[in-house]
Design goal:
alpha+beta; Alpha-Beta Plaits
Length: 91
Amino acid sequence: MISTYLVPLDEVAKVRDEHLAFLEGLFAQGTLVAAGRQDPPVGGMVLLDVAYEAAAREVISRDPYLVRGIAEYEARGWNPTVGALKDYGKS
């Protein structure tokens, strides 16, 4: 999921702790692989371990950034073929 901020960074900062707690919860559940802010900080990227786009959209629908109108998300599928994640989830 690729997010784009809809508000200035000072407004993003007011909700960031809630957003990060949400992501930590996803990581603890095994749904989140990695997440981070884009550089420059115009949004972020959230790599989810889900089988379908609909599942990714359902998971991200609970993100405080989305719930509070701070950011919007675009879904992108990805299958790593080279690098540290190429065998992720294959066992």
